[in-house]
Amino acid sequence: MGAGDVIAQQLVERRGLQGHQGSRTVKMMAIGFCFVGPVVGGWYKILDQLVPGATKVVAVKKMVLDQVGATRGGFAPCFLGCFLAITGAMNGLSLEENWSKIQQDYTDALLTNYCIWPPVQIANFYFVPLQHRLAVVQCVAIVWNCYLSWKANRM
After folding, report:
1. What pLDDT, on a 0 to 100 scale, did the predictor assign at position 137?
2. Is pLDDT of 6 > 60?
3. Residue 69 DSSP code
4. I need a surface site. Which of 59, 137, 140, 152 has the fewest CB within 10 A?
5. CA nearest neighbour of 116 among 139, 144, 138
6. Are 102 and 88 in contact (CB under 8 A)?
7. What percentage of residues in the chain have a pLDDT greater than 70?
8. Which value, in Å, is the radius of gyration of the alpha carbons in the chain?
9. Residue pair 66/79 in contact by the 8 Å Cβ criterion
């Protein structure tokens, strides 16, 4: 999350070194270490227990559960909402401001998620052993985290 935030601030927002918000990068790193890493890592373990195996059909089933779910909304929609809420709270938004920001950003972020993650996750679930899946996701996540940081910290 920290690397994505640095990229967002320097390449997307073009803040330069003088304008870089170090506290924002530290917040994003904290969210990564305390929320994103543990939750995503735990989810992959649960998903592997729910849908064991490594065939193409299993990979598609895991991707569907990960992205849209059968009846509960799936992991990605819930995770994204929680991420935006946590980021807003860490940025000092009131409940009303945070809810308004979530309503403003959620749909666009979720649609962007659906453009990036389904093909990545199908390949990840099919080709990559469980113990390495989080590492694969983190490689792609540098770009995704840049987008999320930009989206979540836009005021």
Report:
1. 84
2. yes
3. -
4. 140
5. 144
6. yes
7. 97
8. 16
9. no
Phi-psi region of 52 (alpha: psi -120 to 50; beta: other; left: phi over 0): beta
Q: What is the pLDDT of residues 60-79, one digit of tens each?
A: 999 998 888 654 568 899 99
Q: How far apart are CA 28 and CA 128, in angstroms?
A: 27
Residues in the chain: 155
Burial class of residue 42 (count of CB atoms within 10 Å of its CB; 0-12, 13-18, 19+)? exposed
Query: Residue 18 is encoded by which pair of tokens?
Result: 């003088």
Q: Where are the beta strands (DSSP E) in the chain?
A: none
Mean pLDDT for the chain overall: 91
pLDDT digits (tens, 9 = 90+) for 99-125: 999 999 999 999 999 999 999 989 988
Contact (CB, 8 A) for 124 and 98: no
Six-digit token string for 101: 């920001």
Supply the pTM of this predicted model: 0.85
Write the DSSP assignment of 12-62 as a string of letters: IS--HHHH--HHHHHHHHHHIIIIIHHHHHHHHHHHHHHS---SHHHHHHH
| Residue whose token pair is 């690397």 | 3
